[in-house]
Amino acid sequence: MFEKCLEKAIKAEDLTQEEAYQVVKAMLEGKVVPVRMAALLTALRIKGAAYSELLGAALALRESLAPLAGFENNFLSMDREEIHLDRETIERTSLPGDGGTSTFNVSTATALVVAGAGGRVVRHASLIPSEHVGTEHVLKELGVQPEVTPSVGRRCLEDAGVAFLYSPALNPSARLLYQVRKQLGLRTLLNVAGPLSNPMGASFLYLGVYDPSDLSLFCSVAKALGVERGMLVHGEHTLDEASITGATRVCFLDSSKTHVKELVPEDLGLRRWEPQDIKGGTARENASAIIEVLKGTKGAPRDLVLLNSALALVACKMARDEKEGLCMAAESLDSGAALRSLELLARLSNEQGYLRRAE
Fold first, then answer.
1. Torsion over CA of 6, 194, 151 and 308, rounded to 10 degrees?
2. CATH number for the domain that contains residue 145
3. What is the C-alpha separation between 44 and 14, in angstroms, rounded?
4. Full domain range(s) for residue 212
5. Residue 42 lies in a domain
6. What distance in Å separates the CA atoms of residue 279 and residue 286, rounded to the nearest whole number?
């Protein structure tokens, strides 16, 4: 089947959902040699990912992460595209200076704020060696062990309201696929199929999207994968997060409809800041910025976290609208609840059963 699918992709023909599922499954299981993986991923990128291909790939990824299944479904899955692996996305999102957005791990702080407000948040990603600052590096600086077992992750979710789950060794064969993607340096359909795969079965989704033209497509895929309600966002200057430096495009989905709207900071009474005001740095610097936000320090980082938290709270049905979400997020910070969620998460994640990083 792989040869047939490769030929179709080269001819710019869309793969069916079943074809996409089978070829991604084969790649995850290490049954495809690297040169063929690279050829198919490149051909699909040139053609442009179709709905059927994203859905099939997400289903294959979800199946490969079966050990993470079994969580109750009334929680928020909060992720963004995998952007710390491919040179194309690294150049726009992780490099210092004017060449990249390089924000300070806003989604990590947002997850803690939502948890402090009473929500339950799971973030899942693949743990991939990288010289660029990712969530796992910042978590370690914050005292959180990122490589926990599903059982420990479940306890973190229940008691701290937030769990960060990584899959470094659930399927060792998949590491070959990630090596191919890293060597390609191109954004592929797997960048977003992972976050969309929702292996824990969350009812709600808050997802940062790298390219605004993909918002509606990704919304449709998320709905097909069982998401009850969600928000997918693309921000000016921040790309895969809601922005306080410009406009944010928001794709909202629920059981009855999907629609896209534009939001600016002033809509919620927030100041519009400059991109340099939200720049990140090293893992230690980013962790320090998050701690300052959690302690209630005013400024651009706080406003950026407030905006993303407000949208996430709407996505998981805790807030009726963005303004109520903003008030709830501010209370989570100012009461110290978000900081307490971090402290409890750090303690629980270090207590037992963590996985060691695969060499």
1. 180
2. 3.40.1030.10
3. 8
4. 75-168+199-349
5. no
6. 9
Pairing of strands 76-80, 121-125: parallel
Does any domain span residue 132?
A: yes
Evaluate whether 112 touches 292 at the Cβ level (below 8 Å): no
| DSSP H helices in 185-321 | 190-197, 215-224, 283-294, 300-315
For residue 120, being part of any structural domain is answered with yes
Q: Is 0.90 topped by the overall pTM?
A: no
C-alpha to C-alpha distance for 25 and 358, rounded to whole angstroms: 21
Range from 136-140, 219-223, 242-246, 353-357 carrying the lowest mean pLDDT: 353-357
> How many domains would you assign to the chain?
1
Q: Which of 296, 238, 240 is nearest to 83 (CA)?
A: 240
SS3 of the chain: helix, strand, coil, percent, to 5: 50, 10, 35
In a domain, 30, yes or no: no
b/e per residue 206-241 (b: at least 16 CB within 10 A): bbbbbbbebbbbbbbbbbbbebbbbbbbbbbbbbbb
Q: For 81-109, what is each residue's pLDDT tens digit?
A: 544 444 443 333 333 344 444 688 899 99
